[in-house]
Amino acid sequence: MPGMTRRRALAASGLTAVAATVPAVPVTAGTARPPARGRIDVHHHAVPRGMREWAEQQGLIPPGGGPSWADWSLKATLDTMKANDIAAGVASAPIPAEVFQDRAVAASGVRICNASMAGLVRSRPTRFGFFANVAMLHPDLALEQIAYAFDELGADGVLLNTSADGRYLGDPMFDPLFAELDRRGAVVFTHPFAPKGIVEVPGVEEYIGDFLLDTTRTALSLIAAGTLERYRRVSVVLSHAGGFLPYIVGRAEGWGREDGGPDPARIRYALRRFYYDTALPMSPYATPSLLNAVGADRVLFGTDWPANTAPEVRVNTRDFDRDPGLGDREHRAIGRDNALRLLPGLARRIGR
Question: What does pTM read for this prediction?
Fold first, then answer.
Protein backbone atom coordinates (compact mmCIF):
# COMPACT_ATOMS: atom_id res chain seq x y z
CA MET A 1 0.00 0.00 0.00
CA PRO A 2 1.52 3.36 -1.02
CA GLY A 3 2.86 5.27 1.97
CA MET A 4 2.29 2.41 4.43
CA THR A 5 5.24 2.52 6.80
CA ARG A 6 5.96 -0.20 9.33
CA ARG A 7 4.40 1.92 12.08
CA ARG A 8 1.20 2.51 10.11
CA ALA A 9 0.99 -1.11 8.99
CA LEU A 10 1.32 -2.44 12.53
CA ALA A 11 -1.12 0.10 13.89
CA ALA A 12 -3.65 -0.66 11.17
CA SER A 13 -3.51 -4.39 11.88
CA GLY A 14 -3.76 -4.04 15.64
CA LEU A 15 -0.75 -5.23 15.59
CA THR A 16 21.83 1.22 17.80
CA ALA A 17 23.88 -0.51 19.55
CA VAL A 18 26.87 1.67 18.64
CA ALA A 19 30.45 0.52 19.20
CA ALA A 20 32.62 2.55 21.58
CA THR A 21 34.96 3.26 18.70
CA VAL A 22 33.57 3.47 15.17
CA PRO A 23 36.06 2.23 12.55
CA ALA A 24 37.49 5.14 10.60
CA VAL A 25 36.74 3.42 7.30
CA PRO A 26 33.77 3.57 4.95
CA VAL A 27 31.09 0.93 5.37
CA THR A 28 32.17 -0.75 2.14
CA ALA A 29 35.84 -1.05 3.12
CA GLY A 30 37.45 -4.46 3.14
CA THR A 31 37.38 -7.48 0.87
CA ALA A 32 34.16 -9.41 0.42
CA ARG A 33 34.41 -13.05 1.56
CA PRO A 34 31.30 -15.06 0.69
CA PRO A 35 31.17 -18.18 2.88
CA ALA A 36 31.66 -21.51 1.17
CA ARG A 37 28.40 -23.27 0.23
CA GLY A 38 26.14 -20.39 1.30
CA ARG A 39 24.77 -18.60 4.32
CA ILE A 40 22.01 -19.65 6.70
CA ASP A 41 19.51 -16.84 7.36
CA VAL A 42 17.85 -17.31 10.75
CA HIS A 43 15.95 -13.98 10.73
CA HIS A 44 13.92 -14.72 7.64
CA HIS A 45 10.20 -14.00 7.44
CA ALA A 46 7.61 -15.60 5.21
CA VAL A 47 3.87 -15.33 4.62
CA PRO A 48 2.88 -18.39 2.54
CA ARG A 49 -0.51 -18.48 0.82
CA GLY A 50 -2.49 -20.23 3.55
CA MET A 51 -1.21 -17.84 6.18
CA ARG A 52 -1.83 -14.84 3.93
CA GLU A 53 -5.45 -15.85 3.31
CA TRP A 54 -6.03 -16.32 7.05
CA ALA A 55 -4.48 -12.92 7.85
CA GLU A 56 -6.68 -11.23 5.25
CA GLN A 57 -9.78 -12.90 6.70
CA GLN A 58 -8.80 -11.63 10.16
CA GLY A 59 -8.32 -8.09 8.80
CA LEU A 60 -4.64 -8.07 9.75
CA ILE A 61 -3.49 -7.18 6.23
CA PRO A 62 -5.41 -5.88 3.20
CA PRO A 63 -6.39 -8.17 0.34
CA GLY A 64 -3.47 -8.10 -2.10
CA GLY A 65 -0.43 -5.87 -1.71
CA GLY A 66 0.16 -4.43 1.70
CA PRO A 67 3.41 -3.62 3.49
CA SER A 68 6.63 -5.28 2.36
CA TRP A 69 6.65 -7.82 5.19
CA ALA A 70 3.22 -9.09 4.11
CA ASP A 71 3.66 -8.93 0.33
CA TRP A 72 5.73 -12.11 0.26
CA SER A 73 6.32 -14.41 -2.70
CA LEU A 74 8.42 -17.53 -3.08
CA LYS A 75 9.96 -16.28 -6.33
CA ALA A 76 11.09 -12.97 -4.85
CA THR A 77 12.42 -14.82 -1.82
CA LEU A 78 14.46 -17.30 -3.86
CA ASP A 79 15.75 -14.48 -6.07
CA THR A 80 16.90 -12.53 -3.00
CA MET A 81 18.51 -15.62 -1.51
CA LYS A 82 20.37 -16.32 -4.74
CA ALA A 83 21.56 -12.72 -5.05
CA ASN A 84 23.02 -12.84 -1.53
CA ASP A 85 24.42 -16.39 -1.47
CA ILE A 86 21.83 -17.54 1.08
CA ALA A 87 21.58 -21.31 1.02
CA ALA A 88 18.66 -21.59 3.44
CA GLY A 89 16.30 -19.42 5.41
CA VAL A 90 14.63 -20.35 8.70
CA ALA A 91 11.21 -18.84 8.16
CA SER A 92 9.13 -17.19 10.86
CA ALA A 93 6.01 -15.04 10.99
CA PRO A 94 5.92 -12.74 14.02
CA ILE A 95 2.28 -12.06 14.89
CA PRO A 96 1.41 -9.99 17.99
CA ALA A 97 0.26 -12.35 20.72
CA GLU A 98 -2.80 -10.19 21.26
CA VAL A 99 -4.13 -11.28 17.85
CA PHE A 100 -4.60 -14.70 19.47
CA GLN A 101 -6.37 -13.35 22.57
CA ASP A 102 -9.52 -15.29 21.67
CA ARG A 103 -8.91 -18.98 22.31
CA ALA A 104 -10.75 -20.19 19.20
CA VAL A 105 -8.77 -17.80 16.99
CA ALA A 106 -5.59 -18.95 18.72
CA ALA A 107 -6.35 -22.60 18.08
CA SER A 108 -7.26 -22.26 14.41
CA GLY A 109 -4.92 -19.40 13.48
CA VAL A 110 -1.73 -20.91 14.91
CA ARG A 111 -2.51 -24.22 13.24
CA ILE A 112 -2.96 -22.55 9.85
CA CYS A 113 0.21 -20.49 10.24
CA ASN A 114 2.33 -23.47 11.22
CA ALA A 115 0.86 -25.73 8.54
CA SER A 116 1.66 -23.05 5.94
CA MET A 117 5.26 -22.83 7.12
CA ALA A 118 5.61 -26.61 7.16
CA GLY A 119 4.26 -26.72 3.62
CA LEU A 120 6.92 -24.25 2.52
CA VAL A 121 9.62 -26.47 4.01
CA ARG A 122 8.17 -29.58 2.37
CA SER A 123 8.19 -27.83 -1.00
CA ARG A 124 11.86 -26.79 -0.66
CA PRO A 125 13.36 -28.93 2.14
CA THR A 126 16.96 -27.93 1.36
CA ARG A 127 16.15 -24.21 1.23
CA PHE A 128 13.94 -23.61 4.27
CA GLY A 129 13.35 -24.41 7.90
CA PHE A 130 10.80 -22.76 10.19
CA PHE A 131 10.14 -21.51 13.70
CA ALA A 132 6.60 -22.39 14.80
CA ASN A 133 4.09 -19.95 16.26
CA VAL A 134 2.35 -20.67 19.57
CA ALA A 135 -0.51 -19.01 21.44
CA MET A 136 1.52 -17.38 24.20
CA LEU A 137 -1.53 -16.06 26.08
CA HIS A 138 -2.93 -19.60 26.39
CA PRO A 139 -0.05 -21.64 27.89
CA ASP A 140 -1.97 -24.94 27.96
CA LEU A 141 -2.86 -24.56 24.30
CA ALA A 142 0.70 -23.48 23.52
CA LEU A 143 2.01 -26.74 24.98
CA GLU A 144 -0.20 -28.69 22.57
CA GLN A 145 0.99 -26.52 19.71
CA ILE A 146 4.63 -27.06 20.63
CA ALA A 147 4.13 -30.83 20.57
CA TYR A 148 2.35 -30.74 17.22
CA ALA A 149 4.90 -28.40 15.68
CA PHE A 150 7.87 -30.57 16.62
CA ASP A 151 6.40 -34.05 16.45
CA GLU A 152 4.14 -33.72 13.40
CA LEU A 153 5.37 -30.72 11.40
CA GLY A 154 9.12 -31.00 11.98
CA ALA A 155 9.67 -27.44 13.22
CA ASP A 156 13.25 -26.30 13.80
CA GLY A 157 12.28 -24.24 16.82
CA VAL A 158 9.60 -21.99 18.27
CA LEU A 159 8.96 -18.28 17.76
CA LEU A 160 8.12 -16.36 20.94
CA ASN A 161 7.35 -12.67 20.86
CA THR A 162 9.41 -10.68 23.33
CA SER A 163 6.21 -9.84 25.20
CA ALA A 164 2.56 -10.82 25.26
CA ASP A 165 -0.05 -8.40 26.59
CA GLY A 166 2.67 -6.54 28.49
CA ARG A 167 4.26 -9.65 30.02
CA TYR A 168 7.89 -10.33 29.17
CA LEU A 169 9.42 -13.77 28.78
CA GLY A 170 10.74 -14.01 32.34
CA ASP A 171 7.15 -13.84 33.64
CA PRO A 172 6.11 -17.02 35.54
CA MET A 173 3.22 -17.35 33.08
CA PHE A 174 5.70 -18.66 30.53
CA ASP A 175 7.46 -21.16 32.79
CA PRO A 176 5.41 -24.14 31.51
CA LEU A 177 6.48 -23.27 27.95
CA PHE A 178 10.14 -23.04 28.89
CA ALA A 179 9.93 -26.28 30.88
CA GLU A 180 8.62 -28.15 27.84
CA LEU A 181 11.10 -26.47 25.49
CA ASP A 182 13.88 -27.34 27.92
CA ARG A 183 12.76 -30.96 27.92
CA ARG A 184 13.08 -30.95 24.15
CA GLY A 185 16.36 -29.02 24.06
CA ALA A 186 14.60 -26.58 21.74
CA VAL A 187 15.58 -23.33 20.07
CA VAL A 188 13.51 -20.21 20.78
CA PHE A 189 13.66 -17.37 18.28
CA THR A 190 12.43 -14.14 19.86
CA HIS A 191 10.98 -11.24 17.91
CA PRO A 192 10.01 -7.79 19.20
CA PHE A 193 7.27 -5.27 18.64
CA ALA A 194 7.06 -1.82 20.21
CA PRO A 195 6.73 -1.99 24.01
CA LYS A 196 3.14 -1.79 25.19
CA GLY A 197 1.94 1.78 25.84
CA ILE A 198 5.10 3.48 24.62
CA VAL A 199 4.78 7.08 23.39
CA GLU A 200 5.61 7.51 19.72
CA VAL A 201 8.41 9.82 18.63
CA PRO A 202 7.05 11.86 15.71
CA GLY A 203 8.80 11.01 12.47
CA VAL A 204 10.70 8.03 13.93
CA GLU A 205 9.60 4.53 12.99
CA GLU A 206 9.17 2.02 15.83
CA TYR A 207 11.59 -0.53 14.39
CA ILE A 208 14.52 1.89 14.70
CA GLY A 209 14.62 2.06 18.50
CA ASP A 210 11.46 0.72 20.12
CA PHE A 211 11.84 -2.82 18.78
CA LEU A 212 15.39 -2.91 20.11
CA LEU A 213 14.18 -1.74 23.51
CA ASP A 214 11.59 -4.52 23.57
CA THR A 215 14.28 -7.14 22.91
CA THR A 216 16.45 -5.62 25.63
CA ARG A 217 13.55 -5.65 28.09
CA THR A 218 12.78 -9.33 27.51
CA ALA A 219 16.46 -10.26 27.81
CA LEU A 220 16.68 -8.44 31.17
CA SER A 221 13.42 -10.11 32.23
CA LEU A 222 14.87 -13.56 31.51
CA ILE A 223 18.05 -12.66 33.39
CA ALA A 224 16.22 -11.27 36.42
CA ALA A 225 13.91 -14.28 36.61
CA GLY A 226 16.76 -16.79 36.33
CA THR A 227 14.98 -18.49 33.41
CA LEU A 228 18.18 -19.33 31.55
CA GLU A 229 19.63 -20.96 34.66
CA ARG A 230 16.53 -23.07 35.34
CA TYR A 231 16.11 -24.17 31.74
CA ARG A 232 19.66 -24.74 30.58
CA ARG A 233 18.81 -26.81 27.49
CA VAL A 234 16.78 -24.03 25.86
CA SER A 235 18.70 -21.91 23.33
CA VAL A 236 17.30 -18.37 23.04
CA VAL A 237 18.03 -16.24 19.97
CA LEU A 238 17.71 -12.48 20.47
CA SER A 239 16.76 -10.62 17.30
CA HIS A 240 18.58 -7.57 16.02
CA ALA A 241 21.90 -8.36 17.71
CA GLY A 242 20.27 -8.37 21.14
CA GLY A 243 18.89 -4.86 20.91
CA PHE A 244 20.82 -2.72 23.38
CA LEU A 245 21.85 -5.59 25.68
CA PRO A 246 25.53 -6.02 24.66
CA TYR A 247 26.02 -2.26 24.91
CA ILE A 248 24.57 -1.88 28.45
CA VAL A 249 26.11 -4.85 30.24
CA GLY A 250 28.27 -2.59 32.41
CA ARG A 251 25.17 -0.75 33.56
CA ALA A 252 23.38 -4.05 34.22
CA GLU A 253 26.29 -5.22 36.37
CA GLY A 254 25.92 -2.02 38.41
CA TRP A 255 22.26 -2.96 38.89
CA GLY A 256 23.48 -6.22 40.41
CA ARG A 257 26.06 -4.60 42.67
CA GLU A 258 23.98 -1.76 44.06
CA ASP A 259 20.25 -2.08 43.37
CA GLY A 260 19.29 -5.64 44.17
CA GLY A 261 19.65 -7.00 40.65
CA PRO A 262 21.18 -10.35 39.73
CA ASP A 263 24.79 -10.96 40.66
CA PRO A 264 27.09 -9.58 37.94
CA ALA A 265 28.43 -13.10 37.36
CA ARG A 266 24.89 -14.25 36.53
CA ILE A 267 24.51 -11.36 34.10
CA ARG A 268 27.75 -12.28 32.36
CA TYR A 269 26.66 -15.91 32.23
CA ALA A 270 23.32 -14.99 30.66
CA LEU A 271 24.99 -12.71 28.14
CA ARG A 272 26.87 -15.69 26.72
CA ARG A 273 23.87 -18.02 26.96
CA PHE A 274 21.90 -16.04 24.40
CA TYR A 275 22.39 -16.22 20.65
CA TYR A 276 22.20 -13.03 18.58
CA ASP A 277 21.39 -12.45 14.92
CA THR A 278 23.03 -9.89 12.65
CA ALA A 279 19.77 -8.21 11.59
CA LEU A 280 20.38 -5.01 13.59
CA PRO A 281 22.20 -4.80 11.11
CA MET A 282 25.36 -5.62 13.04
CA SER A 283 28.02 -4.59 10.52
CA PRO A 284 30.07 -2.56 10.82
CA TYR A 285 29.05 -0.35 13.74
CA ALA A 286 27.88 -2.85 16.37
CA THR A 287 30.42 -5.57 15.56
CA PRO A 288 33.12 -4.59 18.11
CA SER A 289 30.67 -4.33 21.02
CA LEU A 290 28.83 -7.52 20.16
CA LEU A 291 31.88 -9.70 19.55
CA ASN A 292 33.71 -8.35 22.60
CA ALA A 293 30.67 -9.12 24.72
CA VAL A 294 29.66 -12.58 23.46
CA GLY A 295 32.17 -13.90 20.91
CA ALA A 296 31.55 -14.90 17.30
CA ASP A 297 30.24 -18.38 18.18
CA ARG A 298 27.01 -16.91 19.61
CA VAL A 299 26.13 -14.84 16.53
CA LEU A 300 23.94 -15.96 13.62
CA PHE A 301 23.43 -14.43 10.20
CA GLY A 302 20.02 -12.79 9.67
CA THR A 303 18.52 -10.45 7.07
CA ASP A 304 14.98 -9.56 8.30
CA TRP A 305 13.69 -10.26 4.79
CA PRO A 306 11.17 -9.09 3.56
CA ALA A 307 10.68 -6.43 6.24
CA ASN A 308 14.06 -5.40 4.85
CA THR A 309 13.61 -5.03 1.10
CA ALA A 310 15.85 -6.74 -1.44
CA PRO A 311 18.08 -3.65 -1.92
CA GLU A 312 18.48 -3.27 1.84
CA VAL A 313 19.28 -6.96 2.27
CA ARG A 314 21.97 -6.53 -0.37
CA VAL A 315 23.48 -3.50 1.38
CA ASN A 316 23.49 -5.22 4.78
CA THR A 317 24.95 -8.44 3.38
CA ARG A 318 27.67 -6.57 1.53
CA ASP A 319 28.56 -4.70 4.70
CA PHE A 320 28.74 -7.98 6.62
CA ASP A 321 31.06 -9.47 3.99
CA ARG A 322 33.34 -6.42 4.17
CA ASP A 323 33.19 -5.85 7.90
CA PRO A 324 36.76 -5.07 9.02
CA GLY A 325 35.97 -6.43 12.49
CA LEU A 326 35.49 -9.99 11.23
CA GLY A 327 38.23 -12.46 10.37
CA ASP A 328 37.64 -15.34 8.02
CA ARG A 329 36.82 -17.78 10.85
CA GLU A 330 34.33 -15.41 12.46
CA HIS A 331 32.77 -14.62 9.10
CA ARG A 332 32.15 -18.27 8.26
CA ALA A 333 30.98 -19.14 11.79
CA ILE A 334 28.39 -16.36 11.76
CA GLY A 335 27.38 -16.89 8.15
CA ARG A 336 26.79 -20.65 8.33
CA ASP A 337 28.48 -22.87 10.87
CA ASN A 338 26.83 -21.58 14.06
CA ALA A 339 23.35 -22.05 12.62
CA LEU A 340 24.05 -25.60 11.48
CA ARG A 341 25.35 -26.48 14.94
CA LEU A 342 22.30 -24.92 16.61
CA LEU A 343 19.72 -26.38 14.20
CA PRO A 344 20.59 -30.05 13.61
CA GLY A 345 17.38 -30.82 11.74
CA LEU A 346 18.15 -28.13 9.19
CA ALA A 347 21.75 -29.36 8.97
CA ARG A 348 20.53 -32.87 8.13
CA ARG A 349 18.23 -31.60 5.40
CA ILE A 350 20.71 -29.36 3.63
CA GLY A 351 23.94 -31.24 4.38
CA ARG A 352 26.81 -29.66 6.25
Answer: 0.89
CATH number of the domain at 85, please.
3.20.20.140
Residue 255 lies in a domain: yes
Residues 6+ apart with CB under 8 A from 71: 65, 306
Kindly state whether residue 21 falls inside one of the protein's structural domains.
no
- For 272, the domain range is 6-14+40-350
- Summarize pLDDT for 15-35 with one digit per residue, the tens: 333 333 333 334 445 566 665
Low-confidence stretches of the chain (pLDDT < 70) are 1-37, 65, 352
